[in-house]
Amino acid sequence: ELYNYATQWRSDADSTVLQELRKETAALGDDARMQISVEQGAFMRMLAGTIGARSAIEVGTFTGYSALCVAQGLPADGRLICLDIDDDWTGIARKYWDRAGVAEKIDLRIGPAIQSLENLETNLQFDLAFIDADKTEYDAYYELILPRIRQNGLLLFDNMLWGGDLIAENLNHPSGLALNALNQKL
Predict the structure, then answer these.
(1) Of the candidates 35, 37, 31, 27, which has an alpha carbon nearest to the alpha carbon of residue 3?
(2) Which letter does DSSP use for residue 135 in this model?
(3) Closest residue by Cα to residue 15 from 93, 100, 97
(4) In angstroms, rounded to a whole number, what is the distance separating the alpha carbons of residues 93 and 103?
(5) What whole-number distance in Å separates Cα of residue 162 and Cα of residue 173?
(6) Which is nearest to 155 in space by CA: 131, 181, 124?
(7) What does the pLDDT look like over 14-25, one tens digit per residue?
(8) Do 65 and 18 meet the contact criterion of CB atoms below 8 Å apart?
């Protein structure tokens, strides 16, 4: 009930294009759980706009919902680099980025994220970063991105509480252990 109350006044973040992208992603079955929520997307778009972000990076793009939201928060000449390993899922993303009119802001790079981060142009700096990919590699992503975040920039992580399972007595899953270690480090 509290969630419904808190989310009853939605902004235009849930546009027709975003709704259709969510619907197509939902048709992927269990993999659809990797998509961020409507509220997260609206929050990310708001954050990008609020801090005046002009450059952003995303590690883990999936079907492009979060990228679309961030790109909408960037100015017309803003740039978002998206790193993902899957051409099929990002093929869905490209279609919706085109429909939403933000494709020209997005530079999609396919390949292993750590390698892609290591190969970034040396002069790139980011106002905003979003990490939502392989949980066991979050720390590596963090270490590679942090030096590129401008002063007072934002570095966002998804799933840092791992669905509440980090407090399990017998935490032994590699993803959970990695997230727990990064939370302690941060």
Answers:
(1) 37
(2) G
(3) 100
(4) 9
(5) 11
(6) 131
(7) 689 999 999 999
(8) yes
